[in-house]
Design a protein that fits this description.
The chain is 73% helix and 0% strand. With 101 residues, the protein is an all-alpha fold. The termini are far apart.
Length: 101
């Protein structure tokens, strides 16, 4: 397989890992207020998300720092996408999205 195609696939895998990691974080934070054991929920979620992400990076990397870097680019792109997509709605007169500032 061509080196370029492998790097594109690594970026796509990184984006998938980023969606898994940051999407899972978002879901966890939304569930925390109603949880009976928030520390256990947060700790378990962190361990699971981090373990899966590290395993994914390790498998995608396959000994190549170029693949790891491409995967990291996809991971960061997914983070930026979710920040943009899941941002809370701003009030019409609020220029900065902050209350009382």
């Amino acid at each position: 397989m061509s080196g370029f195609i492998v790097l594109v696939l690594a970026v796509a895998a990184g984006a998938g890992l980023g969606l898994l990691y940051y999407g899972g974080l978002w879901l966890t934070v939304r569930r925390l207020p109603g949880s009976g054991r928030p520390a256990l929920l947060f700790g378990g979620s962190f361990a699971g998300r981090t373990g899966l992400t590290l395993l994914g990076f390790y498998l995608v990397m396959d000994g190549s720092w170029e693949r790891m870097l491409a995967c990291l680019v996809g991971f960061i792109m997914a983070r930026q996408f979710l920040i943009f997509r899941l941002r809370p709605e701003r009030e019409p007169g609020d220029r900065h999205g902050r209350e009382g500032v």
